[in-house]
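Dear Dr. H.,

I hope your travels went smoothly. While you were away I took the liberty of generating a structure for the chain from your last submission, since the lab meeting agenda had it listed for discussion. I wanted you to have the full record in hand beforehand rather than looking at slides cold. The sequence, exactly as received, is reproduced here:
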Amino acid sequence: MKKKEIIFRDIIPLRGPNIWTYRPVLEAWVDIGELEDYPSNKIPGFYERLTAWLPSLIEHRCSVGERGGFLKRVAEGTWAGHILEHVTLELQNLAGLPGGFGKARETSERGVYKVAVRAWHEEVTRAALHKGRDLIMAAIEDKPFDVAGTVEELGDMVDSKCLGPSTASIVDAADDRDIPTIRLLDDGNLVQIGYGAAMRRIWTAETDRTSAIAETISRDKDLTKSLLESCGVPVPEGREVDSAEDAWDAAEDIGLPICVKPVDGNHGRGVFIDVKTREEVEKAYAIAIDEGSGVLVERSIPGTEHRLLVVGGKLVAANRGDMITVTGDGKSTVRELIEIQVNSDPRRGPTELHPLSNIRIDSAARMELERQGLTADDVPATDREVLIQRNANHAFDVTDEVHPETAALASLAARVVGLDIAGIDLVCEDISRPLSTQGGAIVEVNAGPSLLMHLRPGVGKPRPVGKAIVDNLFAADESARIPVVGVTGTRGKTAVACLVAHLIYVSGKRTGLACSAGLFLDRRQVQKTDAANWTGGRRLLLNRAVDAAVIENGARTILGEGLPYDRCSVGIVTNIDRDAENLERWDVHPSGGEFFTTYRNTYRTQIDVVLRSGYSVLNACDEVVAELAELSDGEVIFFATDPACPAMAAHLAEGQRGVFVRDGRITLASGRDEIRVCRLGDVPVIGKQKDPATIANVLAAVAAGWALGLTQEVIGTGVKTFGLELPDPAALLPQRAGKSPAATARN
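The corresponding predicted structure, in token form, is as follows:
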């Protein structure tokens, strides 16, 4: 076969809702050249090589709508752009990013395709696209390809760059409640939940409600124990020591066996339990002091260690630790037995995807072996049981077994330390009995506890700990959203955005505006360059001082970046003029049926993201814009310079809402009921010329203000003061309490 090639002409990151989907995607412009003449069924052996390398493609349903649908398309004949879509998604899936959106569409240029794939992380997806291209070319050319190595490489990228499972569980829980999230670090677990003034922030299992003082207290185990003891929480007797000799003195005072651990250690490092001899005490001290700034010696509590997760003062999950033992076979060393009998468990592994971690011979394990007269390289006798670790992974879910009294003590411990999310470590023999009846005690209170043990226990059912954290951050009726107004269209969108922002400002809200004229906070300009883009809009949503945001989005933003928000309260489309805007760069056409991107499909993106509780504000005099009403999940408010236009007349006849000019006055209508806001002559931006385009812009802004629930007085004052240099336009509002236009008596 003559050499063929797949070339990426461009890869465009669409970081928000776009013409393809609501989620971020990478849009790859792919030139398949001569392969346009060679669909998959005309390439000998291609199907066999592809399915041998990626047998899991059988799960891709494709447009056929059934399992194996995509492979059926490959067997019948499909093109390299379409195959690249599915191969990229499958490589991401195998690397640990399951599911995701994909689409391939031809462009107006023969052999060139747009391929859009879900971008969980831009760098990972970009790498998957390139690896997918390489795999397809290897299958075409009948060359070897290292699928396992590729998946491993991508998997390493996923582990290092994507959200960890603990943070992801919280983000997923927020998504289930339709609460927006923004990742604040490309390679970290710092996430903003919500927009603007309504936001909260999390970092794994810590939130912006997690006190730095409480976290510091939790790291000081001696101080934590003292505070708990003062509140009646059972804790092990003990004290901080400053030398190996002092540790032995403390052990003699307390009584053997004892526990030796760092004052401020974590993850169980340097912790030795059931220490019984002076030699063991001295060895344990030497190791523990290297793991922290000091050493604690405590009474050894009989039983098994448990981890209780407390969120917002409530117990939401509990796990029990397990003892790790191996059984001798008369020929394998202890080290080998650990690998054969323990680490071979598929649940164990080095990544966070594994519920259990691998067991290694650390200092504590070596001490346990010494007690039994063994080393890691000794061969135990056949059937001899060898203890490796007393408290290993917290692998067993026991949430439903926790005694109410013990749950109450765990909650009290979290409150005493001051943590909103706490991992409470306690030792007892039976978690279903009160601690007081068995000499159990709380041994540690941890900030930022791992959630993985509760999400993926080795034994038992997973617990919805991410949901518990989100529900603690936001009440059931909180959306974590601020009013967001998105404005798009061919002309007038900047003017509309500025006026809408002014109306909201007059109502008393701290208002952010991102538009072509710059970035504004209230009436203060903080950026003079064009901010009608993804970055400008995102800056507003990241700002705690913003109560409402107005964001201008042109077609180039939608096509080249994506919208900066997932959903909006109000979406405005001013007009669509195909002759006034050149979008050939994105291969946008006046029409194109199923395959080509059209002007309508571009601008509809703004309406696609309107919340069900929101409003679409549409130009009734623009036929293409008016037709977008059928796509809106929210209510539709039409505006029109001519109230007699067919779309407005039909809309009002159905009892719906509209804004227009009647008898020289801006009028709000709900069906046949009308409210007069003010005369056109009272609106400075309209002036004496009464330009129809300017009037339409004002009507669009008034409709948006109405949609946001602004009062008639606020709307009237806003349009009358827009563009005037007044110190405080809100001071002109009538003193009497205003009512929303919908509730005002009709005139």
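Two observations you may find useful: The chain has five domains: 7-161, 165-207, 237-300, 324-389, 484-743. The chain is about 30% helix and 25% strand.

With kind regards,
E. W.
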